[in-house]
């Protein structure tokens, strides 16, 4: 039996604020909230979810895991996320036309990947 994706843990300076930002991005809700962690998800029975925990100091290098989001209208979704506080990242990597690299309000990297409609 293999593993299944249960959730993603994100170090954060302000777990409650960042959890609410990601909940709005993903149309999730707050599942649980305590000083040491805030969890978001569709509901308490559906996974994967995300958990935000306090990070006592900045890391010397960027995170080793990032989130990929799928969007049929990638341009509109990137615009929506930037309007919400995300920012484009300037990276010295080959351009991938169907992937846009962004950072959330605390600098955590994620990509928006162009997906196709399931109907076509």
From TrEMBL:
Residue intervals of the Glyoxalase-like domain: 8-113
Coiled coil: none
A single GO molecular function term of this UniProt record: lyase activity
Stored InterPro entries: Glyas_Bleomycin-R_OHBP_Dase (IPR029068), Glyoxalase_6 (IPR041581)
Keyword vocabulary terms for this entry: Lyase
Pfam families (alphabetical): Glyoxalase_6 (PF18029)
Name by which UniProt lists this protein: Lactoylglutathione lyase
Species whose genome carries this gene: Virgisporangium aliadipatigenens
